[in-house]
Amino acid sequence: MTAIIPNEQHCPRCGAVMTRDGFTPNGRQRYECGECGKKTSTPPPLTAGQLGPYLQRIREGRGYTYQAVSAHLGHDAQWLSGIEAGEGGLGIDDLFALADVYGMKASEIIADYERHVRSSAQRVATKRKQER
């Protein structure tokens, strides 16, 4: 299955891998493309590496084991362990299946994750302003 959530973040202009390049004054992460030099403060697409640990928190919060969730989805426990560790791509079908097991919609998982990231970024920005 092709991963729709890649493990690398790519430039919207040239497709090369983007790297983090500091923060904007309001605390948003800045990115720079190593190939074409494009800079943006709009975060690149969500990656499996970022979403994996969040999926782990959801699973653990519901009291499910790797084995139970993986078996329900027809995979072995190493598959889910890899997803949660950010070591593998997460296909859209798998995201929908995990959401179903967790009693959520896939869109809820992504929206909750993005809210978590935004609140974390705001805390970092506030802390940096206080340190100045």
Q: Supply the CATH architecture of the largest domain.
A: Orthogonal Bundle
- The run of helices and strands is EEEHHHHH
Structural class: mainly alpha
Q: Which topology of the largest domain does CATH recognise?
A: 434 Repressor (Amino-terminal Domain)
The proportion of residues forming helix, as a percent range, comes to: 40-55%
User: Separation of termini?
Assistant: 48 Å
Mean pLDDT: 80
Overall number of domains = 2
Q: Which strands sit side by side, in order, in the main sheet?
A: 1-2-3
Any idea what the CATH superfamily of the largest domain is called?
lambda repressor-like DNA-binding domains
Based on Cα principal axes, name the global outline.
globular
Protein architecture, described:
This protein has 5 helices and 3 strands. The chain is mainly α and 132 residues long. It has 2 domains: 7-45, no CATH class; 48-131, Orthogonal Bundle (434 Repressor (Amino-terminal Domain)), CATH 1.10.260. Strands 1-2-3 form a 3-stranded antiparallel β-sheet, with no helix packed on it. The chain is globular, with a radius of gyration of 17 Å. The relative contact order is 0.17. Mean pLDDT is 80; it is low at 1-7.
Write a compact overview of the structure shown.
This protein is mainly α and 132 residues long.
Descriptors:
434 Repressor (Amino-terminal Domain); globular; 132 residues; 10% strand; mainly alpha
Q: How do the strands and helices of this protein lay out in sequence?
A:
Elements: E1 18-23, E2 29-33, E3 39-40, H1 48-61, H2 66-73, H3 77-84, H4 92-101, H5 106-131
Antiparallel strand pairs: 1-2, 2-3
Helix pairs in contact: 2-3
